[in-house]
Design a protein that fits this description.
globular; 158 residues; alpha+beta; single chain
Length: 158
């Protein structure tokens, strides 16, 4: 079997950031998958599961409610390794193209007040596993990096 692209990235060199993981074409539609890497792989503790779950709820809600991006949002969800998230958008984009969207989204998530969207037994299969305080901390930490992103945070290591 062919090794998938994400397993071809040297995770020992990977820094937190936002990376184009892949582009796929379906008929005439291009979708871009982004690697939103919150944690330095194999060096930092992974995201806390309840915080990860809350970030997913917050960011998916933000993207699906955003007038400019909702129709282009295909998916937002966690990586199995818990070092970040995947964001899939319709269209062809580079990491720098979506920095304003991400900064706005993580600003919103960091400042979020109220009930966590979708955090009820009717709406979620594991609704009790949430941690809003840790989610807000992680979003703020990641957003600080995005606001000061350098090439090493926007392009996979060679």
């Amino acid at each position: 079997m062919e090794k998938i692209k994400s397993f071809q990235i040297n995770h020992l060199l990977l820094k937190p950031g936002v990376y184009v993981s892949r582009e796929d074409t379906f008929n005439d539609t291009v979708i871009t998958t982004f690697d939103l890497r919150f944690k330095e792989p194999n060096k930092e503790p992974v995201l806390d599961q309840p915080a990860l779950h809350t970030i997913e709820h917050l960011c998916a809600t933000f993207l699906r409610s955003n007038k400019d991006w909702s129709a282009k949002t295909v998916y937002f969800g966690p990586m199995g390794c818990r070092t970040g998230f995947y964001l899939i958008l319709q269209g062809t984009y580079k990491s720098a193209d979506i920095l304003p969207l991400l900064v706005e989204m993580f600003d919103w998530a960091e400042k979020f007040e109220g009930d966590i969207p979708g955090a009820s037994a009717i709406e979620c299969g594991n609704w009790r596993e949430q941690n809003i305080d840790m989610a807000k901390y992680e979003c703020g930490r990641y957003n600080k990096l995005l606001k000061n992103a350098k090439k090493e945070n926007l392009e996979y290591p060679g």
